[in-house]
């Protein structure tokens, strides 16, 4: 048997999934790691904890499958994007915890750069907005606030990377400091038109270019690891949302997918055209093969599945995520609660870093069931925000079908509400591990184990389609209430 190993390094856990020669997941292993919240709006990870979790799940999945490293033809890596880390070039020791994509500590710095007139040029080059979400201002903060970091970086002693770069560096024992085009495109330091790190933006943020990784295609030679008993090449890398786009086989312009994990991320394939959004959506690289990028419009929601975690861990209203669907079904239909989960600010199309979460419409009869329903509905409302913005940017009525993936898609209640509120069919695929599948296909196709792009697209299969049943009048009424709630939340 020949396997492809996908490492899915996410925001709350690391997973390893073995795929067989037919691209079916046959074994998986997952391990959560700690989230650190040192101040309000700050979110950090311990990179060494993440590395230990990756080692554990890879070793675990190989043991569970009863295979050996020699049977693994290649490794594909997908990762939480934008999370920012600096480590020592010689020892590999991080100089500070990783600053997570959700972190908002650089809001004031972004405001200053915007006031100085830098946003237009940055957006034109990178497709991104000036926001704490992206890696660049996090990197600037680390260089400015960790003692001696700026001087050490200037001497070439430190390396920067997103989690893919760090994992590859660790897996290859320091032999490869690389990333792929999709992760580079999310740093706010990479010119996605010219395909290179931008010297002017690096100078503006005082980032030495020597600490940046080499950028490669998504399916490429990223190095070889011998840590698991045999040499295994790393042949595929993509940021998690781009990997999901690939895993959903959204290869044609106009195809659209939305991933519901910790956050929610919708990507619309725009082909070789980088669309300049009028609605504060992002231009980004969907994937890059043979040196040629394919672009996408992206809308990013910071809180999706994380709102269910909040119900569980913050409020103690549930023990397991799956309980929310039954609670939502049993909620009082006469109550109209709106939960705006702006726990770490609002993403697209609002991009308001200072907003915080709020709930509207509470009565004496409001309880856990109504909270659960409002939490699940918030994901549908935010997705409608994104799709309407995309339709306006493209000047079209939009894609007829939305392909979905991620943990929340297991909830039929949530997916039915999503179809109802966007007024379009929602397709859930047979293989829900779409992000890992995308990484596996990148590596497997490069290794010659999996089919080419067209063959992979032909193999995509639907598990379930959710058709909209809500009347247009009810849809309009409910969404107007959501828009009013968001307006009250914006600051």
What does this structure look like?
The chain contains 16 helices and 23 strands. A hairpin with a 6-residue loop joins strand 13 and strand 14. The mean pLDDT is 92. The relative contact order is 0.13. The strands form seven sheets. Strands 17-18-16-15-21-22-23 form a seven-stranded mixed beta sheet. A six-stranded mixed beta sheet has the order 3-2-1-5-14-13, with helices on both faces. A two-stranded antiparallel sheet has the order 4-7. The protein has two domains: 238 residues, 2-Layer Sandwich (Nucleotidyltransferase, domain 5), CATH 3.30.420; 213 residues, ATPase, nucleotide binding domain (Nucleotidyltransferase, domain 5, 2-Layer Sandwich), CATH 3.30.420. It is α+β, with helices and mostly antiparallel strands and 491 residues long.
Work out the helicity level. 25-40%
- Spatial ordering of strands, largest sheet: 17-18-16-15-21-22-23
Number of helices: 16
The CATH first-level class of the largest domain comes to Alpha Beta
The 3D shape can be described as globular
Structure class: alpha+beta
Strand residue percentage = 15-25%
CATH superfamily descriptor of the largest domain: ATPase, nucleotide binding domain
Q: Which topology of the largest domain does CATH recognise?
A: Nucleotidyltransferase, domain 5
What is the gyration radius calculated from CA atoms? 22 Å
Compute the average pLDDT.
Answer: 92
Number of strands: 23
Number of structural units classed as domains: 2
User: Spans of 5+ residues with little confidence (pLDDT < 50)?
Assistant: none
Q: Report the span from N to C terminus.
A: 57 Å
CATH architecture of the largest domain: 2-Layer Sandwich
Largest sheet: 7 strands, mixed
